[in-house]
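User: structure tokens for this one?
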Amino acid sequence: MSYRFPPGLPHVDAMTPAVLVLAGPVTRDEVAGLCDDVRARLETGGARVVVCDVGGLGPPGLGVVDLLARLQLAARRAEGRIRLRDPDPALHALLDLVGLRFEVEGQTEEREPALGVEEEVEPGEPAV
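Assistant:
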């Protein structure tokens, strides 16, 4: 018995994260609905990340920080996380100020240099 692979590329089911667009100033009444929306997207989709597009939120403030913290908490309770898309630099600075760290789309990860990489030394210095 023999099997021949079909022509072309194999079918790959890409796990693309759901996107939640946050626009305009969000009121306290809307926060619970947005948290429910994050939980629902994580429970129905196969991805464990919800991308929150925060480019349209307007000027950052503590209300935005509270919203993002609650969305992250709702995502964690659903065994997922949120990732920010297009955050304002001021929002990024405010999140750092209050001690909240979020994964940002397109941001490189901070990590240690690869093993075996030697740093350049001045001529005449002994090797370590």
